[in-house]
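Design job #97: recover the sequence.
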């Protein structure tokens, strides 16, 4: 089994995401606000997957020792550089999570829930308990639980699968259409984040992530099957999250009519 075969098997789930009803519900900045208030947890846990890979694939302890695979170390360090310390629209160094929060504030979305939630997260050992005891929706809890259960396996090929194949594909394009309708320079932070997201995922991070999986699995068929299984679960979690957000947006429209 190889990347091409996995992508073929995953295609029905990816098509389900591409054709999800959520995209029909995203028509206004108000819809974007509701979307971002749930999606921000996926932005945050993406950063957690990223750092889990860096911990597993590079040397982050002292004394330093060379890692077994410098290719995967290079791949993940390149992605970390731009995801954790990128430059925003003003030339200020920020993580993509922080840029996303700035964009949320710009469009009037509420960031208090996510910021309060992060203050309660103490360490990896208690993260699942904190998620369970939170007031988050069932869909968001399930999404986060899958991520951190995957991270806790400490198996880089599984973490890389969730990191690589569990992403959204159409959201930046949908948002840009709404932002354009709002008028030129109405939401510069959001527009910059979206364009940067498209640029990095398509041209750099997507291809690097696929190479990373190839390096991690090699000729080990068991690992390739793990990657497929984990990728299927990650995509289903994304679909479930999209279901939840679509319902929330639709409900809000019914209330405001």
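Job complete. Output follows.
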């Amino acid at each position: 089994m190889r990347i091409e075969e996995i992508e073929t098997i995953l295609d029905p789930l990816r098509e389900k995401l591409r054709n999800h009803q959520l995209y029909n519900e995203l028509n206004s900045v108000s819809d974007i606000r509701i979307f971002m208030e749930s999606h921000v947890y996926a932005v945050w846990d993406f950063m957690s997957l990223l750092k889990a890979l860096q911990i597993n694939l590079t040397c982050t302890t002292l004394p330093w020792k060379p890692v077994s695979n410098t290719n995967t170390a290079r791949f993940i360090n390149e992605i970390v550089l731009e995801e954790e310390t990128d430059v925003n629209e003003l030339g200020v160094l920020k993580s993509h999570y922080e840029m996303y929060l700035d964009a949320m504030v710009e469009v009037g979305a509420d960031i208090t829930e996510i910021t309060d939630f992060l203050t309660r997260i103490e360490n990896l050992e208690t993260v699942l308990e904190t998620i369970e005891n939170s007031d988050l929706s069932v869909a968001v809890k399930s999404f986060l639980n899958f991520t951190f259960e995957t991270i806790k396996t400490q198996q880089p090929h599984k973490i890389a699968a969730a990191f690589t194949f569990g992403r959204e594909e159409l959201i930046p394009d949908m948002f840009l259409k709404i932002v354009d309708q709002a008028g030129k320079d109405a939401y510069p932070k959001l527009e910059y984040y979206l364009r940067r997201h498209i640029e990095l995922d398509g041209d750099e991070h997507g291809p690097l992530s696929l190479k990373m999986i190839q390096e991690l699995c090699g000729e080990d068929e068991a690992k390739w099957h793990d990657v497929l299984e984990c990728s299927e679960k990650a995509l289903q979690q994304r679909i479930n999250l999209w279901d939840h957000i679509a319902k929330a947006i639709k409900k809000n429209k019914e209330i405001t009519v």
